């Protein structure tokens, strides 16, 4: 296992000893990870490894049994989900969680309701419509009529309406055609260029390592491998299990 591959200063997020259990199922058995300011860090691992449980616990949606979450120098371990959003950390959940009968604009307004400075919502909305022009064309349309890729863009734009500093993205490429996946990854890279920090859970290991600075591999509720994106790409574990080389 590679250690200390990620510099120990400038971390926006520091997680230590994170444990989550669903009844008798121990999903996280003590997870440690850090995300540097302005970085894209990817969280990889097989189905059931604990990736979603990690993201959900970070935003307060899965109950933590133990562990400490320090965000931007503040211990947010005990905060409720809406308080965590106001601190500047937000989640685009696995499966997108779009409401089929609400319009695109209603989704944006829902995301904006958690904004720390509510006076800026109109401005943030304009910014999102510029960044996601397809959503501008579909503003009054019910979200259930959007394509899978458009729904994923909407889920990201909804999360971005709270003006987060750290975006947690859970499997944004799930179920999308390769061309659409490329588009989503371009959008993610574009968000980072504006200074957003991103923790990205993905099944598409190759594309994730292309845009990430660093990554972690989870198995059975633990981090089993950590390193820079280049180190992970060259590791025999990743090449054997994920990259088919
Ligand atoms: N609500 C729940 N109730 C009971 N068990 C759960 C619940 N959510 C997750 N688990 C279990 O916790 C473990 C970790 O699940 P988790 O969803 O975090 O994995 P994951 O890495 O995101 O997997 P995937 O790649 O399939 O999304 C699994 O064993 C899963 O079955
Ligand atoms: Mg998951």
Describe the structure.
With 245 residues, the chain is of the alpha/beta class. The chain has a single domain, classed as Rossmann fold, CATH 3.40.50. Helix content is 36%, strand content 27%. The chain is built from ten helices and ten strands. It has helices spanning 51-58, 81-87, 104-112, 121-131, 133-137, 148-160, 178-193, 205-211, 229-234, 236-241, and strands at residues 11-22, 25-36, 40-45, 64-71, 74-75, 89-92, 166-170, 197-201, 214-219, 222-228. The strands form two sheets. The protein has a six-stranded mixed beta sheet with strand order 6-7-8-3-9-10, with helices on both faces. Strands 2-1-4-5 form a four-stranded antiparallel beta sheet, covered by helices on one side. α7 links the parallel β7 and β8 (197-201). α3 packs parallel to α6 (148-160). The longest helix has 16 residues, at 178-193. The two termini are 20 Å apart. The site of adenosine-5'-triphosphate has 12 residues, from β2 and α1. It comes from Sinorhizobium saheli. One of its GO terms (biological process) is L-amino acid transport. Keywords: Amino-acid transport, ATP-binding, Nucleotide-binding, Transport.
